[in-house]
Design brief:
The chain is mainly α. It is built from 5 helices and no strands. The protein starts with a helix and ends with a helix. Keywords: Calcium, Calcium channel, Calcium transport, Glycoprotein, Ion channel, Ion transport, Membrane, Transmembrane, Transmembrane helix, Transport, Voltage-gated channel.
Length: 118
């Protein structure tokens, strides 16, 4: 459930960032679709370069041309995507994932201990 909620939020907040092969938001790693967002969050949950992904989602990133309407100024397309919410988003996601993994591991150890004692 945590992944689904964060995937939808990520799609809304970071989905219009332009894909760039030189950053962590590229064609294999992005928030464009729900499936891609889930894959990206799974990668972050494993601890693989989540800091670089977070930095690639900060304010000042170029927008995808298809996501910018023609009546918006040109500077919006050049540096109007991303958000400072990336700090809160990624750190809270990592914190909650770590908590869930730790709680699940503790529960399993407790169940195994009870099972062995019987």
């Amino acid at each position: 459930m945590l992944f689904f909620i964060f995937a939808i939020i990520g799609m809304q907040v970071f989905g219009s960032i332009k894909l760039d092969s030189k950053t962590s938001i590229n064609r294999h790693n992005n928030f464009r679709s729900f499936f891609q967002a889930l894959i990206l969050l799974f990668r972050c949950a494993t601890g693989e370069a989540w800091q670089q992904i977070m930095q690639s989602c900060l304010s000042g990133r170029p927008c995808d041309p298809a996501s910018v309407s023609p009546d918006e100024p040109d500077d919006i397309a050049e540096s109007g995507c991303g958000s400072f919410l990336a700090y809160i988003y990624f750190v809270s996601f990592i914190f909650l994932c770590s908590f869930l993994v730790g709680a699940t591991a503790g529960l399993l150890v407790g169940l195994l201990k009870i099972g062995i004692e019987q």
